[in-house]
Structures are given as structure tokens and as C-alpha cells.
Amino acid sequence: MKQHNRKQPLFLAFITFLVVTLHQSFAATDVPPTAAAPQTTAPPPAPPARPERGNYTVTNGNGTVCLMARMGLQLNIRFSSASLNNTVQDVLNLQPNVTKSSGSCDSDSATLLLMAEEKTNLTFVFSLNATSSKYHLSGVTLSAAWPDMSEPFSASNSSLDYLRGTLGRSYMCREEQTLAVAVNFSLNTFQLQVQPFGLTGDQFGAAEECQLDEDDMLIPIIVGTALASLVLIVLVAYLIGRKRSHAGYQTI
């Protein structure tokens, strides 16, 4: 009787198992992995353009102008957004055509109140030191109720020391200035000229320019002086070299 080889069925079973395993492996590699959906974030809003310059005046009881200001104003506010349910930073330009000015003047203090759209009220308080005849912006208050605010916004600071000027003169700053008022509010001014005391009629007094304007004018002067000095050095070096070359020739 012939004996069956028991190794052959085991060998065939092993081959079958190997083929099935390789097929499943290749099938798995043929399936492209699921690509994760790209996460998109909304770009931050573009800052508004340079604000328009407005003319604001305050008159006293007899109708005489006692405070004048010309400036572009930009509000930087951090508030709680109702739509985003988060704290956001927003910038708003004050539009002169929809902003009304009022205020009051005393011997040592003057107030300018600007009332703009969307219930935005901005108050400037100037103080005068009679001894030194110097004035400065001592206080700023802002209240606003914009549509996206979770609650009305308010910020105030009565211990500021900005826009320092002399009685009878105006304070001018053409460059952009940032006036920090509170943690959640700062104010940018553009092409500012203001005089809260010592006005004669409806004209500004002689202007005292801010340090930013003086620095801006100083740079071209420094560059021009450096270029003039360089030209002078080159000219002197040329003349000295020419003199030496002539001295090298001897008369026979």
C-alpha cells in the first residue's frame, strides 16, 4: 500500500495563507488615505484708511470761540463681540461729517465733546497751569454702543499728560500719534492742531510742533549735512592731490 505524503497538504495550506495575506496587504495599499479637510481661518480685517481731518470748535457763553481743534481721529477698542462670543480688537475712524462738537471753557480747564454715529461719545479735557502758562491734555473718556458689542463700552483716564503747549500758542503734530488711554482703548491722531486756551478770534496762535515732526525734519538736515561734508572732503583731497602732482615737476 502507498503511503500518502502528509507534508503536501500542509505546504498547500501555507501557500494559500500567504497568497491571501499578500492580496489583502496590496488591497489595503491601493485605497488612498482619507485626506484631512484643510482648516481655513478668516483673514484679519484690513485696517481702515487714514481718517479724514475734522474741524471742531467750542464757544463760551457770549459766542466767542474758546477752543479749536483740527485732527483726524482713529479709535482702537478691545471689546466683547456678541456675534463671535469673544474679545476682539476693532478700529474705527471718526467721520467729521457725522460728528458734532460741543464743550465748555473755564480759566484753567477746557472740554471738547465729540458725538459721533453709533452712540460714540469722545471727550477731551485740557488743563492749564497758570503758574507756568503751560497746558496739556489731562483726560480722555470714551463711551460707545456699537451693534456687535455684548454690552456698552466705556473707558476713561483723567491723569494723562499729552499734547503739551504754551498759553496763547497752538500744539501741532502732523505725524500720527498714539495716545494710550486705557488697557482696552487707545487713540490715534493725524495732522493734529489744537489750542484750548488763549485764542484770539477764530485763528490758531503760533504753532509749537511735536517731537515727531521735529525728528522728521531733522533727518533730511542730517543727510544733507553728511552729503555736503563728503563732497567737501572729496574736493579737498582732489586739490591736495593736484598740488602734489604739480610739485613733482621740476623746471630744467
UniProtKB/TrEMBL annotation:
Task: Classify the protein's membrane topology as the record does.
Answer: Single-pass type I membrane protein
**InterPro entries in the cross-refs:** Lamp2-like_luminal, Lamp2-like_TM, Lysosome-assoc_membr_glycop
Where does the record place the Lysosome-associated membrane glycoprotein 2-like transmembrane domain?
219-250
A single GO CC term, please?
plasma membrane
Q: Which residues form the signal peptide?
A: 1-27
Can you cite a GO biological process for this protein? establishment of protein localization to organelle
List, alphabetically, the Pfam families matched: Lamp2-like_luminal, Lamp2_2nd
The cellular location(s) given in this protein's UniProt record come to: Cell membrane; Endosome membrane; Lysosome membrane
> Keyword annotations for this protein?
Cell membrane, Disulfide bond, Endosome, Glycoprotein, Lysosome, Membrane, Signal, Transmembrane, Transmembrane helix
Domain of life where this protein originates: Eukaryota
Cystine pairings recorded for this chain = C173-C210
Where, by residue number, does the polypeptide cross the bilayer?
Answer: 217-240
**Annotated stretches, region: Disordered:** 33-54
Q: Is Transmembrane a UniProt keyword of this protein?
A: yes
- The segment(s) forming the Lysosome-associated membrane glycoprotein 2-like luminal domain are 51-199
Q: Which family does it belong to?
A: Belongs to the LAMP family.
Q: What is this protein called?
A: Lysosomal associated membrane protein 1b
Organism listed in the record: Oncorhynchus tshawytscha
Name of the gene: lamp1b
